[in-house]
Amino acid sequence: MTATELDRPRLDRARVAVGFTFATNGLAYAGWLARAPAVRDGLDLSAAGFGLLLLCLSAAAIAAIPLAGPLVQRFGPARAVLLGSSSMVIGLSGLATGTLLGSVPLAGLGLVLVGMGNSTWDVAMNVEGADVERRLGRTIMPRFHAGFSLGTVVGAAFSAVAAAAGLPIWAQLYLTAALAAAVTAPTVRHFLPYHPLPAGQKPAMSVRRAWREPRTIMIGLVMLGFGFTEGTANDWLAIGLVDGYGAGDTVGAVAFGVFVTAMTLGRLFGGYAIERWGRVVTLRVTAASAVLGLVLVVAEIGVPVAVAGALLWGAGASLGFPIGMSSAADDPAKAAIRVSVAGSIGYGAFLAGPPLIGLLAEHLGVLRAMLCVFGALAIGLIASGATRPLPQAKE
To answer: Does Membrane count among this protein's keywords (predicted)?
Structure first.
């Protein structure tokens, strides 16, 4: 079905549905990250041990994401989102049960399912979002990612309230899983119609071929650098405030909330910057903001300064992933595979980040361990030129 065959109301419904899908994914993913210290304490883990536990999440995400592209290409984004969300719901329930029982293996298994489900969910909703963006002829991918960030804001706010009220983390996880299951199924029904390839017809792009494309690899490196920048804050910012500044769990959740709020605002309004200055310049400006924010967080001047740093850090990390996803999806016929390959590289940040920060934190402390984010940002900036639109694609 071509763009002209879709009426505007149908396209607008798909746009709203994609936004809700991103938001639900953000809420489900961040519903426990803001209270990561409570999970760590409930399982009685050290910083290094908790980093290894997070490795279950990251490794599963890395392993699953190369398979997500062919899955989306074969069954369509709607069915892939349903499959991924189901895995994530089961995984969150497993993490809740593991925390309740103090079982690290059960919590690790839950995180494996969360990681696998999130990868499939992520690729599928980005492919659908890129399709909607192309048909509308506007730069709206950052706004879809703002939906994800808005979901994390809601998740962080709920976590802060839950921590202040003394709600056990396992109870919060069960509630989050139930909400994700209730929202996702009706939402994906409004995705754009999907027409699989006829039997016997080969797809326009294979995974092997995509791995040989320099542009796709460089886009993946952009996502790696900015993903590491984002993921470090997701996993360790709250713990950094608690351990590095002696703040309480509530303050840590608030700082994380400030970070994801800044990311939300950056993504809501980032499309205007991209349309005016282009993808490359926008990436460089946001990287500068992330650098300044990181400096303020690790400087140990005081909690208010660290919270201000979280604000700048969030704004700086906001556009790397949406720009990378849009760039990888410039060609609609090859979007699913290229998004999955670039995403595989980008999610390497979430594989390397948790254990690296955890191991460094054992010797240097969490705040100083965060300094390795500078190297990740350098990688993203070096590769940023690859995000320029393909000749046939509009910015």
So the answer is: yes
